[in-house]
Design a protein that fits this description.
The chain is α/β, with parallel strands linked by helices and 174 residues long. It has 5 helices and 5 strands. The chain is globular.
Length: 174
């Protein structure tokens, strides 16, 4: 059975890898990226998979998430899997705690914490049209607070903290 994915941060790293795997499995992918025209990797995938891949502008803000959901609704009837992969880690990553720029931390919080929330909310109507909707929020070992033996990546670590356990996601339908 073919699935329809919306993947944030699909222009590189884990987001791009998820898009590649989904496409190779025959699934439909809508890739949410800041600038759909700038990713050479996505352009290559688009030439290979054609209509199976749709590129949509997305930057994790509330306005952008709503616009991305509207654009996605024009391309697909529903979304089966929403993958919140996008995240930022403000530079310099190795800043000492007393040197961390709090405004950059606020920006990381907006993208890494509130971004998945506003995106999930914006895509809820498309998810509700799926017979088995799923939402997946990504993090990384880099964000682990328990595994930190030295400083650095403070904004990323606090805003995209990983847990040492997993939990099941439940879909709630009205």
């Amino acid at each position: 059975m073919s699935l329809t994915f919306f993947i944030t941060g699909a222009n590189r790293g884990l987001g791009l890898a998820c898009a590649q795997v989904a496409l190779s499995e025959g699934d439909q992918v809508v890739a949410g990226v800041r600038d759909p025209r700038s990713s050479e990797a996505l352009k290559k995938l688009k030439s290979e998979y054609g209509a199976k891949l749709t590129l949509v502008a997305y930057d994790a803000s509330e306005k952008s998430a709503k616009q991305a959901a509207e654009e996605t609704a024009k391309a697909v009837a529903h979304v089966d899997v929403l993958m919140n992969v996008a995240g930022i880690s403000p530079a310099p990553a190795n800043a000492l705690l007393e040197e961390v720029d709090l405004q950059k931390c606020r920006e990381a919080y907006e993208v890494n914490v509130l971004g998945p929330l506003v995106t999930t909310r914006a895509f809820l109507p498309l998810l509700k049209k799926s017979s088995n909707p799923r939402v997946i929020h990504f993090t990384s070992g880099l964000a682990s607070l328990a595994g930190k033996s030295e400083g650095g990546f403070y904004a990323y670590g606090v805003s995209k903290r990983s847990e040492e356990h997993t939990s099941e996601l439940q879909s709630h339908h009205d």
